[in-house]
């Protein structure tokens, strides 16, 4: 127990920087993914892992050596690699007679497996097979999900959340139109998941808004869902919990509508509108009769005697 409770103190400045990078933060770093090849991975699985690595760079680590492990039976090796490489997402590829061209996508919470979904590759077109121009490395993709299953079925809903976590990239404060050049499209239809990658081309349209065309650039995958290992509702809720410092403080008398418009309520003392200074206009000028009526005096005009 003493060895477990021991606090590791850095001996060099480099080690101190390393430990500071790993320690918990209010705003977490961009999630890194590790791509691991199983002990019996074939050429298709290897190419899939290489292409996903190309899409995820620089927020990914590709292990080129084969690792004999079965994530659904023993997760200790995955947890070890996660701690070693500081990765909270993983993609494991394997191949056997019972489950050919197998991919296992998952995520970690506190260096323990949270969610894990097994997908089978039925059709694969790699990046190099599509002879079109590619997006630069590190381009943040736009994610599109089509199909009712992503909203109706719990396993598909969790898969959607997992795919968003895996491909979303870094959080950015603002975007520019020219930076929106990469689309990842996921379609759930007839028990299959179709993944397609497109490059956005901005064409001349004769007006301010450009005409948009999509050009397929790869990789494209036809996937089928196999086994799942989902976290319990309590653990999943715990993983989504945010620290109190990040929660926005509620400001009094300020509200927002569904469109994001801010409304403010101000409290003022009762005003005497009769003393309000208005713009001086001839039309608003008081007549002598009105003035005398207000003062309680007699009209200056004398009534004619009969």
Describe the structure.
It is a single chain. Strand 8 and strand 9 (211-216) form a beta hairpin. Helices cover 23% and strands 29% of the residues. The model is unreliable at 1-5 (pLDDT under 50). Strands 1, 2, 3, 4, 5, 6, 7, 8, 9 and 10 form a 10-stranded mixed beta sheet that branches. The relative contact order is 0.11. The chain has 306 residues and is α+β, with helices and mostly antiparallel strands.
Give a short summary of the structure.
The protein has 306 residues and is α+β, with helices and mostly antiparallel strands. The protein has eight helices and twelve strands.
CATH class of the domain at 30-232: Alpha Beta
SS summary, helix count = 8
Average pLDDT over all residues: 83
Give me the CATH fold name of the domain at 30-232.
Rossmann fold
Main beta sheet: 10 strands, mixed
Write the layout of secondary structure elements.
Blueprint (H helix, E strand, L loop, with lengths): L1 H4 L7 H10 L10 E6 L4 H14 L3 E8 L8 H10 L3 E6 L7 E8 L2 E14 L16 E5 L2 H4 L1 H14 L14 E8 L2 E12 L7 E6 L3 E10 L3 H7 L14 E3 L5 E3 L23 H8 L11
Parallel strand pairs: 1-2, 1-3, 6-7
Antiparallel strand pairs: 3-4, 4-5, 5-10, 7-8, 8-9, 8-10, 11-12
GO molecular function, one term: rRNA binding
GO cellular component, one term: nucleolus
Family: Belongs to the RPF2 family.
Task: List the main descriptive attributes of the protein structure presented here.
two-stranded antiparallel ribbon, alpha+beta, 23% helix, 306 residues, Rossmann fold, 8 helices, 10-stranded mixed β-sheet
């Amino acid at each position: 127990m003493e060895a477990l409770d021991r606090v590791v103190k850095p001996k060099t400045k480099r080690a101190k920087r390393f430990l500071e990078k790993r320690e918990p933060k209010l705003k977490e770093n961009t999630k890194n993914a590790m791509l691991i090849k199983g002990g019996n991975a074939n050429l298709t699985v290897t190419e899939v892992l290489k292409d996903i690595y190309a899409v995820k760079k620089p927020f990914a680590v590709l292990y080129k050596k084969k690792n004999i492990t079965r994530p659904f039976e023993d997760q200790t090796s995955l947890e070890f690699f996660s701690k070693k490489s500081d990765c909270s997402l993983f993609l494991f590829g394997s191949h056997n007679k019972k489950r050919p061209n197998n991919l296992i996508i998952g995520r970690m919470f506190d260096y323990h497996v949270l969610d894990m979904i097994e997908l089978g590759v039925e059709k694969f077109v790699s990046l190099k097979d599509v002879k079109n121009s590619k997006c630069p490395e590190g381009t943040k993709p736009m994610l599109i999900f089509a199909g009712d299953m992503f909203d109706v079925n719990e396993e598909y809903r969790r898969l959607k959340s997992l795919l968003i976590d895996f491909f979303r990239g870094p959080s950015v404060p603002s975007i520019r139109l020219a930076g929106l050049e990469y689309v990842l499209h996921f379609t759930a239809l007839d028990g299959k998941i179709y993944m397609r990658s497109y490059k956005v081309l901005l064409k001349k349209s004769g007006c301010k808004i450009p005409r948009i065309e999509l050009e397929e650039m790869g990789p494209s995958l036809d996937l089928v869902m196999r086994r799942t290992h989902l976290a319990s509702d309590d653990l999943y809720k715990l993983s989504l919990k945010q620290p109190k410092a990040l929660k926005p403080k509620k400001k009094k008398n300020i509200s927002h509508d569904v469109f994001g418009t801010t409304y403010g309520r101000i409290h003022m003392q009762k005003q005497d509108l009769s003393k309000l200074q208005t713009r001086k206009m001839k039309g608003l000028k008081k007549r002598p009769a009105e003035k005398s009526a207000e003062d309680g005096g007699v009209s200056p005009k004398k009534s004619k005697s009969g």
